[in-house]
Input
Amino acid sequence: MKRIPLEKATVFEIDHRLEPAIHVEPGEKFILETEDAAAGYLRDESILPKPENRPTHAFNPPKLNPVTGPIYVEGAEKNDVIVVTVEKIIPDTQGYTILQPGDGLFGDSLKYSKTAEYFTRILKHIPGPSGTLADGDCILNDRSRWNLAPFIGTMCLTPEREAPASVNVQGPWGGNLDSRDFCEGSRIYLNSYVPGGLLFAGDVHGSQGDGELSGTANEVRAELTLSCTIIKGKTIPHVRVEKNNAIIGLFCEKPLENAVKGAVSNLMEWMVSDYGFNERDAYLLIGTCPDFRINIYQMVDITGLSYTAGAELPKKYLL
Output
């Protein structure tokens, strides 16, 4: 199986001019090793997330969220959709989360002053009953622990002309969306704009709460197994996710209500184009069905980054 190793997981620009790291055929599984969002500089709680401890912060925009790639998908062209199946995610045995002035919902708070100070917490990952991290736990402290729920924070194809920083990239091609549904078993639909699509992935999170409100999730190194298929001659409004039991339309925008509106529109168009709904019935369904959900994946104020929302409908309503 083709593999891109950790030492090559250091791409900070999503650029169509980069040479592919590997070529894959549709349906072929491949492995990516990914670095954490701090490029590996925050591996101990004694290292605070100050700029002098993170050399990648010396750039503008900063070199955050390194990704692995690009991967050239044979046969993919402009105006195709590439569907990326997340076959497997193996997180590292530790992650980190941080606080720093200005970050997150209370990063400049007087009331919650401790949230506006530099702070690093190493999150331990311990195996579960299977003896692996597949059913393992994350340990925050002596009081709080939860099941690991790893997902891919940044996954994208390459824009036709732009070369955005990996920390800021967002669009119909994907990007730094921090969607918890980019998880094992999901199928991610992305618009292709260049030959081969040129796929990147990284910024894996071991777990995350809705909105990533503290500014940083459980950031981890990881090993990903992915595969890709191609839908020829199709474009979609924005990123879509298909899970075993639901479909989700995503959208990125500010303010948050615009992201929600775009996500709902994306979902409704999917219902109409692929599942035979008329627009009125699709609209009535999402307004009345108690299982319809709005997911607020990312609401972090980073320069150049919009909020990410998802509109989710269980598949049982699509039959």
